[in-house]
Design goal:
Elements: H1 2-24, H2 31-39, H3 43-66, E1 75-79, E2 82-86, H4 88-99, E3 105-115, E4 122-131, H5 137-156, E5 160-167, H6 170-173
Parallel strand pairs: 4-5
Antiparallel strand pairs: 1-2, 3-4
Helix pairs in contact: 4-5
Length: about 180
């Protein structure tokens, strides 16, 4: 709806500026058309009313643009009895608490992206980590991925669409693992 109103307002301003430019241009070819329009009884009051409406709408947009926004970045989940605000940090902490249960994982870095859609909101999670010496890394990552998905979906009550687990090499990171 906002796009449609902005589109209509843009068309209105475009037509208004076009008429003002048409009247301002001093060209002998269009002078007769300008005089014919100005000779009409309805033209000047209509032009003045359109200019006043355009100025009022523009002033409203300026005041609306300067008004502070109290809405924080994050997801707002609407329910019948109110809304719940969920930020990125809370999701990242849930993932970190889930990863802490695994002893073989060192120095995890979690990045969560929250997507607010009209029909359905969802979460994407990316984890960078070092893996200590273990026998079966593939099964560890599979169980970690499933555990992160279930814990995050249980906490947020939103679907987790994508989980990316990036296992980093100790030598390329050049960080000491304790």
């Amino acid at each position: 709806m906002k796009r449609f109103i902005s589109f209509l307002f843009g068309l209105f301003l475009l037509a208004l500026i076009g008429v003002f430019t048409f009247l301002y241009v001093d060209n002998s070819n269009i002078r007769q058309y300008q005089e014919d329009l100005l000779a009409q009884n309805w033209f000047e009051p209509t032009l003045l009313a359109c200019a006043i409406v355009g100025l009022l709408i523009a002033l409203g947009f300026v005041i609306f643009g300067l008004k502070p926004s109290h809405k924080r970045s994050g997801l707002y989940l609407k329910f019948n009895d109110g809304e719940i605000y969920m930020n990125k940090k809370s999701i990242e902490k849930v993932v970190l608490h889930t990863i802490e249960r695994y002893d073989a994982i060192r120095q995890p870095t979690v990045k969560a992206k929250l997507y607010q859609k009209k029909k359905m909101s969802y979460i994407d999670i990316s984890v960078d980590m070092l893996v200590a010496q273990t026998d079966n890394v593939q099964s560890l990552l599979t169980s970690l991925k499933e555990d992160i998905k279930t814990q995050t979906e249980h906490f947020s009550e939103m679907p987790v669409q994508d989980i990316k687990l990036n296992v980093l090499d100790q030598k390329s990171v050049k960080k000491r693992v304790l």
